[in-house]
Design a protein that fits this description.
- This protein has 2 domains: 115 residues, Aspartate Aminotransferase, domain 1; 209 residues, 3-Layer(aba) Sandwich (Aspartate Aminotransferase, domain 2), CATH 3.40.640.10.
- The strands form 3 sheets. Strands 2-8-7-6-5-3-4 form a 7-stranded mixed sheet, sandwiched between helices.
- The radius of gyration is 20 Å and the shape is globular.
- The chain is 35% helix and 16% strand.
- Strand 9 and strand 10 form a beta hairpin.
- Helix 3 packs across helix 4 and helix 10 packs parallel to helix 12.
- It contains 12 helices and 13 strands.
């Protein structure tokens, strides 16, 4: 399993902690908006996506000429990879940063995160070359950590100095507190900031990714994208999902639940949870391995993400999503029963 959310291979109903989707589900009014405009499936989408790009630009606070849209974030990652000969990543990371360039016989340089899963910027100084594509998750998957603001600005300056390019994958941006990289990195010409509707807006079944970059890069990118990659439902989604009340409610809820889950898991023997800035958490298993805990939890109809498929991690890690309070309670209880002493926590 190289991705979470594969409920189809399980064969039974489970609480899916392997997929990091907003527990509130889609924004209010979304379904009604789809039904009211269903007849738009009968015509081609605008091949230039003018209305979609306008809506995304308004949400991101950029100009339409700086917007890229795609069939999910992976579609955009795939196309950008095609534009460069060498890709530099830090592991562990989202596996498509590595699989996409390898598929096209691109060189991939994998650098290791530090023991606490933070970036060692010295490795970028030592290894980044002109025309390299550096891909960084912010927050990173599976570690859940954002790059500290000053570190990110230093990386951006280094990338510019080396005449390389930075793809900053922020698929989980809205779950996080703190700075907005689009504002902080304004003016840099060799950076593309990527986001998506999949996780925060609970739309994994409607493939909508979007990004912002310098106008010159956007024009070059357009040579690599297929026509009509974004469907009518994704266009409709963008008209209603960027709701400030929904965003605020979700951020506040996730922070409370994440802190509670971390604190309670920290009390369980034989595991070590790592602090996260978003809606999922990496856990080190100090006893047993991923297969053992995976199977035992599956017996209780709970699905977690095994992490040995991530470059840089072995079979002693799992990843869990932050879900509803009730579901989180079930997970904590069962992990404690399996690996702890079963005491109240």
């Amino acid at each position: 399993m190289i991705h979470g959310g594969d409920i189809y291979s399980i064969g039974k109903k489970v609480i899916d902690f392997s997929s990091n989707i907003n527990p509130f589900g889609t924004v209010e009014g979304f379904k009604e908006h789809l039904f009211q405009n269903f007849n738009r499936v009968e015509v081609y989408p605008d091949i230039k996506y003018r209305n979609l790009k306008k809506r995304v630009a308004e949400y991101l606070g950029v100009e339409e000429k700086n917007v890229i849209v795609g069939n999910g974030a992976v579609d955009i990652i795939n196309n950008i990879v095609l534009m460069f000969n060498r890709v530099v990543v830090f592991i562990p990371c989202f596996i498509e940063y590595i699989l996409r360039p390898k598929l096209y016989n691109k060189d991939v340089l994998m650098l290791n995160l530090q023991k606490d899963f933070t970036l060692d910027i010295k490795l970028i100084y030592e290894n980044l070359k002109p025309s390299d594509l550096l891909i960084l998750g912010n927050p990173n998957n599976p570690t859940g950590l954002r790059i500290e603001k000053n570190t990110l600005i230093e990386i951006a300056n280094l990338v510019e100095e080396r005449r390389a390019f930075l793809l900053l994958d922020e698929a989980f941006f809205e779950f996080c507190d703190g700075y907005d990289s689009i504002k902080e990195l304004k003016g840099f010409k060799n950076i593309c900031i990527l986001r998506a509707a999949t996780k925060f807006f609970a739309l994994p079944g409607i493939r909508l990714g979007y990004a912002c970059a310098d106008e010159k890069f956007v024009k070059e990118y357009s040579k690599y994208e297929l026509p009509w990659t974004v469907n009518a439902f994704a266009e409709l989604a963008a008209e209603v999902i960027f709701n400030e009340g929904y965003i605020k409610k979700t951020k506040e809820y996730i922070k409370i639940q994440r802190d509670d889950v971390f604190n309670r898991l920290s009390k369980i023997k034989n595991i070590k949870p790592f602090r996260s800035d978003c809606n999922f958490m990496l856990i080190k298993l100090l006893k047993k391995d991923e297969e053992y805990i995976y199977e035992r939890l599956l017996e209780k109809n709970i699905l977690v993400r095994k992490c040995s498929s991530f470059y840089g991690l072995d079979n002693t890690f799992i990843r869990i999503a932050i879900k509803s309070r009730e579901d989180n309670e079930v997970l904590i209880k069962e992990i404690n029963n399996i690996l702890g002493d079963g005491d109240e926590i």
